[in-house]
Structures are given as structure tokens and as C-alpha cells.
Amino acid sequence: MFRPLDFSHEREIGYDDLKRRVEAYYSDADFEMLKKAFDFATKAHEGQKRSSGEDYIIHPINVSATLIKLRLDLDSIIAGLLHDVVEDCDIDPAEIEREFNSEVAQIVIGLTKISKIKFKTKEESQAENFRKMVVAMAKDIRVIIVKLADRMHNMRTLQYVSDEKQKKIAKETLDIYVPLASRLGINSVKAELEDLCLRFLHPDIYYRLAEKVAMKKTDRDVYINATIETIQDKLLEYGMKADVKGRPKHFYSIYKKMKARGMDYDQIHDLLAFRVILSNITECYKALGIVHSSFTPIPGRFKDYIAIPKVNGYQSLHTTVIGPSAERIEIQIRTHDMDHIAEAGIAAHWKYKEGVAGNSTKLDWIEQLLEFNKNVSNNNEFMDVVKNDLDVGGIFIFTPNGDVRELRYGATPLDFAYAIHTEVGNKCVGAKVNGKMVPLRYTLKSGDTVEILTSKSQTPSKDWLTIVKSSRAKTKIKQWLLKVERDKNKEIGREILDKCLKVFGTNLKSVEKNGEIHKAADELSVSNVDDLFINIGTGKFEAKKVVHALPSIGPEEIEDEDKKLEEVNSYSKKVSQTARHRANKDNAVIVDGLDDVMVRMARCCNPIPGDPISGYITRGRGITVHHSSCTRIEQGDLARTVHVEWNSEFKFKHPVNVRVITHDKPGILSQISKNINGNGVNIRSALAKSLPDRKGSFIFEIEVKDYSELLKAISGIETLEEVISVHRV
Ligand code: MN
After folding, report:
1. For residues 195 and 248, is the Cβ–Cβ distance under 8 A?
2. Which residues pair with 77 in a beta bridge?
3. Range of 54-68, 174-188, 286-300, 466-480 with top mean pLDDT
4. Of 646, 672, 693, at which residue does a domain stop?
5. In CATH, what number is assigned to the domain containing residue 94?
6. β-strand 428-433 against 317-322: which pairing, if any?
């Protein structure tokens, strides 16, 4: 099959080649360091092979060669050589910092992080998030540029991997890296990536275009050279020396044009493009005039991107003319500076002097991008584009399946749970971040993989509203709470009404069955029976009023029963109050808004109400409540501690052990027991032991409701004459 463009990488390229190419634009670079990096990478990748069967080192060398083509600074070129050593050779980034410098180490760390992002999803809409994610994780713009060079070489050698992998990587490149290259104005990389994507994603289209462009390579070269000469001669007549280049147009741009205009291959004419490069802007416009008077211009095809640059900073004059052999040709006219910017984009902005580069990397790289584009006249548009495309408004979180969700800064696992699905949010009992349990209040960071743990019995609580940051989660929690409130009130209302009806010798079931309840609802102008119950439950309607509205029970009869009804009403108040408190009664401790999480008191410090406490998330056994000063909390993983509070609703006697040391004296045990009981404290068990020196040791297990009751018991024992010491154990 015909392969028109040569995407192959450089197979034979050594240190001397790299050095020569760097010298061409940056003569006083630190070549000792470059050599060191070259050797370091060679050694690290020794024995590793690529899918092509070649030595792995060929890959990082090609990546740095691309960076040199873009005329990047030395740190970037070195990072290009070292970009895979952390990931593939287990080199510690600290070693890179030691051997080279922290800038290089940071770029390599950034690249390693990006390589861990998994682009697994099939959803189109996720591409934008991934793009933002890449941007968010690259603190230094050079990370993205090196990444683009890395991707370009991988695409150039993509024929060596499986078909399935080819499609996947090409799609990822088209969705994520091509837009980034475009936004950064690195057109040389963008155009090549696009053509490679077309070749692997739509080989049929790619090869038909290739044939069309083909003519015969020699014929084409002859034609291109002749045209270059003609243009150069015309310009020379006016005393202008121009650098003129010609090449077949990029396939992807032809493909896009075909798609956009609904054209067929045969209708595509301008397949060759020429570039005229001059020394200044005045010459560019002069050259345009000469081109237009020498060849017939196609109307509507002239564009002045010098006066109005593209949003990424691209400047050039574009025109299409009928060329020397009646073929349409596209001509771009620009200065050398514009040409370098068009090829290298923001990379062209890079300063080579070490000190300067060092300073500029400290800037936020989006700021650099703005700085780079500040001479662009349509700045507002640019700002919008940056905002939409690159500005990162939040953080990017992965599901265990590799899907990504954008959340706002400060978002918690609970926000993430609601972002996945309302039901996942409502049933959320905890979360694992990167495999570790975290409290629901945990603040998520970009790149975290979050697994939400759910439980059927879990329900949202009001406290969750203070945990979540997103309005979606807040709305969902509020909706749930309102519904629960409604359901609860409905149940209360039914219970009260039923009780009330029984006073009149009937019950709720019968009035529901005979339909009278609907009539009462109509009579009281509520839209349905449920609302009727809810109104009773909330206390808006007295049950009496509803009974009154039932056709079979007249108001006359109610007079006789007034007293009973009063009773019913006071009963109904009681019902609604206890029902509302029931929910919190069962747990001694309230865990960060969770009602249903499993809670145990730690055996090591056995806290009782009144003690300062902290919760500790255990693996698979809920939450253990420790005394805040317990060594287990202080030495434990801070990320696993969770805020807990004593539940004031909870009435429960807590067992506590108290050790009493006394002078040995007959009857002392019963004396202490009496004293403890005298303070209203129950003794569960007592253990006695005699110590040397005629001393006795007792351990009492007593039951107290809180810390103050324990203090009372302890100080009570202390008042006894024979007692030496009393301690909680
Ligand atoms: Mn790589």
C-alpha cells in the first residue's frame, strides 16, 4: 500500500547529533549536563525494548529531538531524555534532582503523573475533562510540551502495536493532545498528530487521499521545485530574497475540508501548499501583491492573520492562486519569527538563558500563555477560549472504572457520590481514596481515585449539608430530607387519626375503605389524602377538624366526645415528639452526620460521655471511638480520624474500670462498695488482690452515665480514710 508521508522516527541518532542541533540555536548550553542525561537514560533503559523490537532508548532520544526542533530550553530537552525513567525504570525522582536539578525533576514528575491518568471511557464528553485534567496536573507548561513530543513519537511508531491499541491511542490523541497542541499554537506537532490520527482511525480515507496527492513522487517534487523557483524569481525582480518551501497539504486539513463542504476527493484541488518567508511585515504585504499579480487569485480565499492573528497567536497571510500548471496552490506568507511561532507556538516563547527560564517557570503557566498572547488584538476572545478550554475551575476525580468527574475545589467524597448518582449519594457510608478509607469530610485532590462505599440502610442526614460543597449534592440532600419529613409526618398523622377515630367506634381502615376519607379531604380543600395525613402530622390540622369533616360523624356527636378528643390531641403531640427523636436515640455517639454507621468504644481507652473523643475508621469494622488523647489516635493515620460527638439523646450506662489502692483493713471492700452505691452508681463486679506492705488493690467495674458521674464516684471513694489512690483504668 502506498505510504505518502514519512512519519518514521530517527533510528540512528546519537549524542553528537543532539549536541549539534542544540548548538545551532543555543551555543552556550551546558553540554556536560546534556551528555550526562543521555548516558543516564541509556543506562536506565538498558535491555528494554519497544514494540518495534528496537532498543527503548530510541524513544526518549526521538522525544528530545522533537523538543530540540521546537528549540526548547535545556531542562526540557533533558526531561525529554529522562521522561520515562521514573515510570519504567523505578528511578527515584530525588535522584534526578540530585544528578540534574529540581526543574528537570519536576517536569519528569509531572509527566509521570500524567501517564497515570487512564483514558478508559467511551463517553465523548469526558474528553474535555481529561484535557483539563492534563492541564491541571501540569504545573509547568513544559510538562505539556514534552508530553506532546512523547505522544508524537508514540504515534509515529504506532504501527507496531495491536489494532485495538492503535485505535484507542489515536482517539485519545485526537481528543486530548491535538486540541492542546492547537491551543498552545504548536502547529507542527498538531498537524503531524492529526495526520497520524487519520491514518490509524480512518485508514481507508487516509490512503485514498494519499493516492490522490501522490501523482508520482518525482513528478510532484519536480512540480514543487519549479513552482518554488517561479515564486522566488518573481520576488527577486522586486529585490526581495525569500525563503520558499513547498509540500503536499496535510491530509487531515483536506479531510476536514471535505467533511465540512460535503465534497468528494475529486473536487479537492488545492493539494499543495507553499510558504514564503521574509524578513519583515512590509515585505510580506509586498510579496502578497506580487503573488496576486503573477498568479490568478481565487476570490474569497485571502486571509490576513497578520493584522488579525488567530487566538493562539498564529500570524500569516493566506491566499490560494492558480499555479504555474493550472493547479490550485495555497500560499502562506510570513516573517521568520511568525514562522517559528507558527511551528512551535508557545514553545517559541521560551527563553534559553538559564536564569530567565528559571524565573518564568515560577509563574502560573496559564499566566504565561496570556503573556504570550498579550499582543493579540482580540484578547477577549482569547480569554474566553482559555477559560473554556484550559482554565481549570475545579478538581478531577476518577471512579474506580476510570471515568472522570469534575468537581469544585474543596469537594468531599460525598459530593463525588452525588455526582455519580443520587442513590449512591443517599446510601453513602464512607469512601476509599486511592485505596484508603477516609472520613466523609475529606478534601479531595485532582487525580484521586474515589470508591464510594454504600449501605442499604444508610440515609442522608441534615449534617451532610455542612459537608457537601456542590449545589447538586445540597439540593439532593434537601429533597431527601423533605421527603423523609413528609413520610414521617404522614405516618404520625395516620396514627393520630386512627386513634381519634377509634374514640368514635370506627378506624382509619374503614374510612379509607368506604371512601369517606376522600370526602373529608375535599371538604378541607386538600388535594389528596396523603396531604391530609401530613397536615395532621405537622399539627396544621387538629385531628378533630378532620373527624368533623367526615360525613358519617356529625359535629353534634363531637360535642359529647370533646373531652376524649382533648386526650387524643395531647396524645398526638406526644407521638409526634417521640417519633422525631427516635432516630437519634440508638447510638451513643454521633459520627459526622451518619446515623447508621457501626460504632464501637475502643477497649484501649474506653471513653465515656464527657470525655473528649475522636473516631477512627477501621478496616471493615465501622468506627472505633477513642479518647482524644489516646496514643492510638495520636499515632494513627490522621486521614482515618473522623469527627464524633456524644449523643445527648442517648441514655446508657457505660462500664468503667476503677482501681482503688487501700491500706489493708478488714471490711474495706464493703465500705468502698457502700460508698459507690451511695452515689447512685451501680457496681458490676469487683476484683480484690492483696499487695505487699499490707496494701490492697481493688478493681471495680462500675456503670456511669457520663464523665461527671464517674468523677463523683471517684471523689466519693477518695474521702475514705483507708484509701491511698483511685484511678480510672
Ligand atoms: Mn514515553
Report:
1. no
2. none
3. 54-68
4. 646
5. 1.10.3210.10
6. unpaired
Distances (CA, A) of 351 to 31, 74, 361, 425: 17, 10, 10, 49
Q: What digits encode the pLDDT tens for the residues 22-51?
A: 998 888 889 999 999 999 999 999 999 998
Task: Say if residues 120 and 401 touch (Cβ distance below 8 Å).
Answer: yes
Cα(63) to ligand 1 centroid in Å equals 8
CA of 68 to the centre of ligand 1 (A): 16
Q: Give the pTM.
A: 0.56
Question: What are the angstrom distances between the C-alpha of 679 and each of 709, 711, 714?
Answer: 8, 11, 10
Whether 617 and 542 share a structural domain: no
683: domain CATH number?
A: 3.30.70.260
Which grid cell is 299? 476570490
pLDDT band at 649 (very low <50, low <70, confident <90, very high): low
Report the 10 Å Cβ neighbour count for 172: 17
The answer to whether position 184 is within a domain reads yes
| Residue 691 maps to a domain | yes
Whether residue 264 is found in the same domain as residue 308:
yes
426 in any annotated domain: no
Which residues are paired to 333 by β-bridges?
Answer: 276, 317
Residue 334 · residue 275 · CB < 8 Å: yes
Pairing assessment for the beta strands 599-601 and 623-627 based on DSSP bridges: parallel
Retrieve residue 182's grid coordinates: 492547537
517/492 same-domain check? yes
**Does residue 577 register a pLDDT over 90?**
no
Same domain membership, residue 632 and residue 487:
no
Residue where a domain terminates, one of 201, 223, 247: 201
Nearest to 335 by CA among 316, 307, 351: 316
Question: 708: which residues sit within 8 A by CB, 6+ positions away?
Answer: 610
Which domain range does residue 87 map to? 15-201
Q: Look at residue 675 and give its three-state secondary structure.
A: helix
Cα(81) to centroid(ligand 1), Å:
9
Give the Å distance between the CA of 177 and the centre of ligand 1.
Answer: 14
What distance separates the 2 farthest-apart alpha carbons in the chain?
A: 128
Q: How far is the CA of 9 from the centre of ligand 1 (A)?
A: 14
Whether residues 26 and 129 fall in one domain: yes
Number of compact structural domains in the chain: 5
Residue pLDDT, tens place only, 236-267: 999 999 999 988 788 888 888 888 878 777 67
Question: Cα of 447 to ligand 1 centre, how many Å?
Answer: 20
C-alpha angle with apex 101: 97 to 106, nearest 5 degrees?
70
Q: Can you tell me the distance from the alpha carbon of 271 to that of 247, in angstroms, rounded to the nearest whole number?
A: 9
And the C-alpha cell for 332?
A: 502562506
User: What is the three-state SS of 519-553?
Assistant: HHHHHCCCCCHHHHHHHHHCCCCCHHHHHHHCCCC
Contact 19, 31 (CB under 8 A): yes
Are 49 and 190 in a shared domain?
Answer: yes
Q: Domain check: are 619 and 672 in the same one? A: no
Q: Give residue 405's identity as a one-letter amino acid code.
A: R
**What cell numbers appear for 109 in the block?**
514528575
What is the CA(34)–ligand 1 centre distance, in A? 18
**Could you tell me the distance, in angstroms and rounded to a whole number, from the CA of residue 102 to the centre of ligand 1?**
20
One domain, residues 270 and 301: yes
CB 342 within 8 A of CB 273: no
Q: Which three cell numbers stand for residue 127?
A: 474528553
CA distance 84 to 43: 12
Report phi then psi at 436, rounded to 5: -110, 145
Mean pLDDT of the chain: 80
Most confident of 60-69, 221-230, 307-316: 60-69
Q: Which residues surround ligand 1, an ion (CB under 5 A)?
A: 84, 150
- In the block, cell 386538600 appears at 526
Catalytic residues: 87-88
